[in-house]
Specification:
two-stranded antiparallel ribbon; two-stranded antiparallel sheet; globular; mainly alpha
Length: 134
């Protein structure tokens, strides 16, 4: 089945949101703690997956590996803390990972996993209506 290209403008909106989260995490999670930010990011990722964005798990793994994090059964936060980072630095690294993940997603020609449905109207990458046929 065909896939719907995700317009870059949508990814730019996600990146803008993440950059604000990076600057002002308390606006999004209240008391700023790494686990709260991780839960927010997980929820955002799940919501975007439900809306048709490709599952970002593989992208996240590529970014964390490139950044040198060895994630064990205790998770990403523990891996970051083992390096000696604490508090706001851990929060910043978490958000930076997601920013880099979405930049990679954008730069590598992200595609939605949602198949085009015959007889339905869809928008292409330029925002133009395309007809899949019946």
């Amino acid at each position: 089945a065909a896939r719907i290209p995700v317009p870059v403008v949508q990814i730019e909106h996600i990146l803008a949101l993440l950059r604000v989260l990076r600057q002002r995490p308390g606006m999004f999670v209240g008391w700023v703690e790494a686990w709260r930010v991780q839960h927010y990011l997980n929820g955002l990722e799940q919501g975007l997956t439900l809306c048709g964005f490709e599952d970002a798990g593989g992208w996240r793994e590529a970014v964390t590996t490139r950044r040198g994090w060895r994630i064990g059964g205790d998770g990403l936060i523990a891996a970051i803390e083992r390096s000696g980072l604490t508090g706001d630095a851990v929060v910043g690294e978490l958000v930076d990972i997601y920013i880099e993940m979405w930049e990679m997603y954008r730069d590598r020609g992200a595609v939605s996993p949602t198949p085009l449905s015959p007889g339905m109207t869809h928008l292409n990458d330029s925002g133009n209506i395309i007809d899949v046929g019946k």
